Every structure is written in C-alpha cells, then in structure tokens.
RNA sequence: GGCGGCAUAGCCAAGCGGCUAAGGCGGAGGUCUGCAAAACCUCUAUUCCCCAGUUCGAAUCUGGGUGCCGCCUCCA
C-alpha cells in the first residue's frame, strides 16, 4: 500500500506531492539536541512526531533511513561543564544518554545513526576546506567564515532578503568577519576550551556546519526530508542550505523541509533559555508515555501546542476511554485479519467499518501527516465496536471484534503508539500516596459496606461511600463487586 | 522594521473551492443501577475574527484590517 503522500514544504510554502529521490526509499535527517540538560517536552514533540512519520512511511511501503545528530560540541555544553567542573564531552555523553533513555520511554524508535560532532571533525574540516577552495568561505584570525554574499540563493528557505536581514541584525560584530551575515564554520580556540587541530590552527566547528557535513555523509547530496523545530528555520537551516549547496554544487540539498510547531507553556515558547520548561522525566512521573504521545499527536504538527495542566487532564479522559476500549477488545477476541474474520462469519457492516478506518487513517496521514484526523478515525471505529462489547458476542461478532482489534494494534499501537495494554487504573492504585496498611484498611471498610448493601442497609452504605469520598477515595459498584481508587 | 505562522462551538482540535463543518472533552436527555459511579445510546456550530472582492458556489482563493504566537541572538 503506497498512497500518494502530500506534505508541506517550508521551502516552497506549499503542500507538495512527495516523491522521494529513489522510489521506495526515504532518507530523513532530523536535527537533534544539544545535550547539556534534561530533555523537555519541546524536544519530545519532534521526536514523537518524526517517529510517527517514520513508522507511517514504513507502513506505506517505504524503506526509511533515519539520521539524528547530537551537537556535542557547543558553547553551552562548555559553559555548563565549566560550572560543574566536568569534561565537556563527558557532560554531553551523559545528557545524550539520558535523552535516548527518555525517548525510549516515550516509545520513540532509535534512529539508524546518531552522528556526533566530536566524531566527525575530519569530515567537517574537509568540507570547510572545500568551501574555501570554492571561494565560499575565508579564513580569518584562526577562524573560518562562510561568505553569505557568495551564495546567491541565501534567504530562500526563510524567505528573507539579505538587505533586510542586515538592517535588523542583532548580531555582534565579529572583528574577523567581512560581512555582517557571515557565520562561523570554524571557531578559533579560546584558552581552556576543547579544541582540535586544523589547517587554521586549533579550534572547533561552528554550529551549522555539522549538520551539513553529517547529513551529506550519511544520506548523500540531495536527500529527502530534513526536519526540525520551526525555530531552526533561520538561521540554522538557511545556513545549512548555503553551505551544502555551495559545497556540492547541487541543489536541492534537501527535497522537503518539515518543521514542527513549538510547544508553549502559558502561551510562551517553552525553552531552556527562558527557563519555562517541563522535562520529559517530570511529565512521565504523572502521565503514561502513550498519553504523552496522544497529547502531541492530537495537534497537527505545524500548529503550536500548549502544554498546560488542565488541558492535559481533559485530554486524558478521551485517551483513557480509547485505551479502555482497546483493552476490552484485546480481552474479548484474538486479532484477526478482515478476510479471516469474514470467513468466521463476521457481520459485513462491521468489517466495512474496520476497512473504512484503515482507509481514513492512511488518507489522513498521507495528507501532510494529519495525526489529529488519524486519531479521529480510531474514535469512529470505537463507536461502531463499543455496543458489541457490552453484550456477550456470538462467533461472528467476536471475529469482527478481532478484526477491529487488529487494526487498532496496527494503527493506534504500531504507528501512533498511543494505545497500550498496560494497566491504566488498577483497583487500589495508590498513586504513590499510600502503603499496605491504608490499602488493607480501605479494603476492610469496603467489605463491611458490601455487607451493609447485601442487607439492603443503603443508608449506612451511602454514608460510608460519602465519607470515603471526602477522604479522596472513590467507589464504584460493579456487577462483579466494588472497586475503589484514589481520586485523581 | 523585515519574514513566517495561527484565528473554526463552553474548551481542545481537523477541514485547504462544492456531499449533512471530522474527532475528543464538557453539557443535556436516556439505558443500566437500591441510589451513585463507570459503561453504553441519542442530541449538542444555518456557521467558521472583521470588512470588501473573485466565483454558479468560500471556513477554504484575493485585497485590506484586528488580535495572538514565533523567527531575525542560543534554541526542537
């Protein structure tokens, strides 16, 4: 199944038909993190989104190569390491490891390659040399700068005019630069900083060059998708284009530029420099990873996403319902293909619903990765299926439930990763607020109340329930007995 | 100052020229229940920030406003 895929290309500011460089193969490079602190939700969003992109493309029949870098040589890493009296590379190693672990917990599949700047100094130096030879860069006082003037297409990604940029520039004037907009490819070492030998003396790579050098190395001169946050469009990606195309002499460097919207907190961009961030680890203390994915995918990837507490709680109800139904389904029937279910006598109407779900899901995803619409298709299937779950289904209905289960597994669990079979609200979940003694006491009280109910002493039963409610304990009387849990 | 993006029901959120404006939350009514809760069913925008225009037809295109957000300095 290889549907026609359309995606919004930042370069052209239009939705375009997706045609990879080589049929059936997709090469993706996503800008990774500068590991000097814990990952926050603003990092989780692109990670989850591009994880879904990758899984969807694979489901659509493409072979996907996925590269994500670590910028492990950087001013902020050096500064942080100095504060802590640590080796910068060691600090970067530690935080890149914790980044990977956080993303693992979010169900993000590992990239095929995680190139690091520190391991590609030679490639970077070679590229800088090439740029100097081509007249696109110049050495100055131990540093090397890219000459923006030498690249006529500068500004095409961010739609900026060079003269306007100069007018609004807030960049400090670097004495070694010939022109305002020129940017560093190689920075001369300052005392006490990590440095590598180069033809221009000891130093380290500038910020933008690494992504060019490493993406070209692993994916070739014109790869398919380059992703990252909207805040990277300028100058980072603009500069990447200039360096790469000047170096290879080939355009386009990247066929499709995809940029995800930013995560906001209180309508302000979440970022480390503003200090208003929520780390992935903090979020995962309170929320299931599959729910975090759900919250991300509930928004279209290009829209801004507010990550506020109350909104999450209301979103969670929907997610819980989706998952409860999925879990009931998993308990009710073995997964089955549609054809298989048809042979087992499943009602045609339900099988159509299952197939329609799949079609809608793929159509939504093929339309610029519309994950919100894709999720809606799952809810629509649930509506068809739920009435059957209340009753004891006959064999045909059971087969249909199996088909529904299979499609949810494929789409909701496999591609989106928003469904889980983990227990969601096990009876007696203490939420970390209680110990064995409290649990036993509540069990005892509930037991006594059940005896009162059996004796039809409802006044007493209600009094117990009300009293427990005031203590933050919620009771549910079900056909199979009373269940209790702490109030959220 | 320049460049982008966004504005759709009480809230979140799809929709990108034409079937009844997805879906979720909430709300209302109902089934079930000793009563609740949970679950399930039904209903819940004659209308898409404002004003002009293009078109047989616009939430969707064009022009002009208004309001938010982002980028132009490190940032996913």
Write the layout of secondary structure elements.
Elements: E1 6-9, E2 14-17, E3 25-30, H1 41-59, E4 63-68, H2 75-84, H3 88-105, H4 121-133, E5 137-140, E6 143-146, H5 162-168, E7 183-188, E8 203-205, H6 209-219, E9 223-229, H7 233-248, E10 254-260, E11 263-265, E12 268-269, H8 280-286, H9 289-297, E13 305-306, H10 309-332, H11 338-343, H12 348-366, H13 371-390, H14 395-415, H15 436-454, H16 458-470, E14 473-478, E15 481-486
Parallel strand pairs: 3-4, 3-9, 9-10, 11-13
Antiparallel strand pairs: 1-2, 5-6, 6-7, 7-8, 11-12, 14-15
Helix pairs in contact: 2-3, 4-6, 6-7, 10-13, 10-14, 12-13, 12-14, 13-14, 15-16
The structure holds one RNA strand of 76 nucleotides.
Can you give a write-up of this model?
It is a single chain. 48% of the residues lie in helices and 14% in strands. Helix 4 (121-133) packs across helix 6, helix 12 packs antiparallel against helix 13 and helix 12 (348-366) packs parallel to helix 14 (395-415). The protein is built from 16 helices and 15 strands. Strand 14 (473-478) and strand 15 (481-486) form a beta hairpin. It has 488 residues and is α/β, with parallel strands linked by helices. The longest helix has 24 residues, at 309-332. The radius of gyration is 27 Å and the shape is elongated. The chain has helices at residues 41-59, 75-84, 88-105, 121-133, 162-168, 209-219, 233-248, 280-286, 289-297, 309-332, 338-343, 348-366, 371-390, 395-415, 436-454, 458-470; strands at residues 6-9, 14-17, 25-30, 63-68, 137-140, 143-146, 183-188, 203-205, 223-229, 254-260, 263-265, 268-269, 305-306, 473-478, 481-486. The strands form 5 sheets. Strands 4-3-9-10 form a 4-stranded parallel sheet, with helices on both faces. Strands 5-6-7-8 form a 4-stranded antiparallel sheet, covered by helices on one side. Strands 12-11-13 form a 3-stranded mixed sheet, with helices on one face.
């Amino acid at each position: 199944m290889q549907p026609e895929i359309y995606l919004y290309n930042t370069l052209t500011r239009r939705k375009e038909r997706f045609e990879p460089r080589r049929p059936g193969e997709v090469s993706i490079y996503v800008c990774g993190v500068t590991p000097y602190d814990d990952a926050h939700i603003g990092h989780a969003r692109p990670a989850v989104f591009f994880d879904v992109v990758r899984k969807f493309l694979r489901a659509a029949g493409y072979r996907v190569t996925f590269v994500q870098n670590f910028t492990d040589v950087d001013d902020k890493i050096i500064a942080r390491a100095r504060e802590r009296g640590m080796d910068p590379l060691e600090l970067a190693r530690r935080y890149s490891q914790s980044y990977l672990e956080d993303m693992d917990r979010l169900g993000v599949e590992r990239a095929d390659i995680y190139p690091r700047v520190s391991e590609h100094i030679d490639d970077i130096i070679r590229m800088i040399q090439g740029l100097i030879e081509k007249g696109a860069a110049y050495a100055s006082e131990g540093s090397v700068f890219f000459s923006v003037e030498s690249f006529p297409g500068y500004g095409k990604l961010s739609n900026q005019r060079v003269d306007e940029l100069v007018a609004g520039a807030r960049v400090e004037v670097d004495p070694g630069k010939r022109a305002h907009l020129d940017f560093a490819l190689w920075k001369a070492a300052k005392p006490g900083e990590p440095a590598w030998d180069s033809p221009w003396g000891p130093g380290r790579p500038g910020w933008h060059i690494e992504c060019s050098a490493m993406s070209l190395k692993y994916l070739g001169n014109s790869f398919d998708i380059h992703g990252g946050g909207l805040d990277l469009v300028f100058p980072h990606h603009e500069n990447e284009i200039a360096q790469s195309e000047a170096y290879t002499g080939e355009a386009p460097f990247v066929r499709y530029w995809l940029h995800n919207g930013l995560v906001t907190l209180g309508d302000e961009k979440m970022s480390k420099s503003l200090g208003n961030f929520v780390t992935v680890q903090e979020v995962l203390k309170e929320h299931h990873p599959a729910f975090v994915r759900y919250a991300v995918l509930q928004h279209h990837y290009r829209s801004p996403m507010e990550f506020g507490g109350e909104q999450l709680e209301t979103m969670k109800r929907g997610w819980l319902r989706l998952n409860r139904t999925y879990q009931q389904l998993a308990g009710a029937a073995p997964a089955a293909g549609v054809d298989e279910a048809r042979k087992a006598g499943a009602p045609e109407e339900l099988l159509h619903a299952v197939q329609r779900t799949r079609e809608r899901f793929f159509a939504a995803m093929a339309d610029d990765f519309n994950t919100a619409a894709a999720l809606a298709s799952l809810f629509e299937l649930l509506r068809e299926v739920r009435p059957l779950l209340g009753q004891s289904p006959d064999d045909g209905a059971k087969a249909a439930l199996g088909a529904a289960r299979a499609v949810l597994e494929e789409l909701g669990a496999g591609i989106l990763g928003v469904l889980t079979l983990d227990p969601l609200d096990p009876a007696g979940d203490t939420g970390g607020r209680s110990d064995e003694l409290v649990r036993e006491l509540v069990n005892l009280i509930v037991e006594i109340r059940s005896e009162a109910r059996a004796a039809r002493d409802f006044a007493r039963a209600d009094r117990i329930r009300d009293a427990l409610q005031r203590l933050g304990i919620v009771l549910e009387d079900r056909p199979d007995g009373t269940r209790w849990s702490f109030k959220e």
